[in-house]
Amino acid sequence: MKHEPLFRGSAVALVTPLRGGKVDVEALHRLVEMHVDNGTAAIVACGTTGEPATLTPGERELVIREVVAAARGRVPVICGTGSNCTQTVIDTERRYRSLGCVAQLVVTPYYNKTTQEGLYAHFMAIAEHTELPIVLYNVPGRTGLDIAPETIDRLAESGRFVALKESSYDLPRVMEKISAMRGRLTLYSGNDDMIYPLLALGAEGVISVLANVAPAYVSGMTGAYFSGKTEKALTMQTECLPLVRALFSEVSPIPCK
Fold this sequence. Notes:
alpha/beta, eight-stranded parallel beta sheet, two-stranded antiparallel ribbon, 11 helices, globular
């Protein structure tokens, strides 16, 4: 069964503004407003770029709550719940599920990592004990773990997984994953320098760091592609590469912030 995309176009992996060591709620609301005004199609709160690994559970919940409140239903909000601890993901989703998010973004386990069988068990336990639809997040450069096409095929059978955020550079392997998805999951690029290639492979958009500093640009790039202006989209992709490199010249989101 094919899922309707959660969004189409540019979603921002939103930074978490801090002031005096605390979440700056006013700045958070201003950022959401800026994204709504500049065509951002969805907001991911407490994804990697939102620094959830270094926020307290209360701070993470505050960020999710305030982003949803600021969005006021104008754009969908996806919350990051991922952890290398299965039970932590489950407990986090239970705290977030009533806040108004449309889905949860769940990264592969990191540090302790796992086998593919363990990865399948991890995600299926989350699927069985949570309610929010699940966006799989594959970012081997950060976690040292890659979701195999065969594992994606097995997970897709459950119907609980709606999308894959793919942050890798192995295009032949990405094509194998797309084949394994068989239309059951939506593909999103997780790399700002790979937006055009993944759109060409059938992605519905990007979850972007670049959109934090150039929201209208990323929205315009995806919009150009979907309106048939593929040469313009390719030109925009090429022209933004120096800025993308600058945004990752140190560990993200340091340069972005």
